[in-house]
UniProtKB/TrEMBL annotation:
It comes from the Bacteria. Keywords: Hydrolase. This is Alpha/beta hydrolase. The keyword Ligase does not apply. The keyword Hydrolase applies. One of its GO terms (molecular function) is hydrolase activity.
Amino acid sequence: MQEVATPHGPARVQLHSADGTAGGLLLGHGAGGGVDAPDLVAATGAARQAGLHVALVEQPYRVAGRRAPAPAAQLDASWLAVVTAVRSGQLAGLPLVTGGRSSGARVACRTAAAAGAVAVLCLAFPVQPPGKPDKHRRAELDGVTVPVLVVQGERDLFGRPESAAGRSVVLLPGDHSLKADPAGVARAVGGWLRLVTGEHR
């Protein structure tokens, strides 16, 4: 466990090393949850089997014990401070995939270019607040210019992203929690990570 100074307080990083050197995967948590969410655990295992080191990132508001998430600009700034830290440390010189679940996926999309990510992994991307299709966040996904994988529950009340050029969408049984089929999450993530990191070897 490592603490990383950010403009909005310390973030916390858990590094899970892999045997290979295919790349690094930086994953963020959802708005109200932690890095022990079932889909993040499944993705971490799959990434390590694919030869990627995984850094699980707790945002400063969670480290400080607050439940309500920080504003988007603060989340993004803290995330990029962690990216800088891991790029000069554990993940130096490796192709970096960024991602997360729900709110963490949004952060990864918004910061993909600034982070120098080679790809973005979105677990349960919240397309819109439940019942409010007019308040969609599709522009965050559409703005990513590197390959994107979205793993989404078929009954996710936060909506369902659509496939597009450079963006794959895998639908699994279950809802926004993605806890119904962790093996499915692992299969989708592992196969995709091998593809996108293989292009940078």
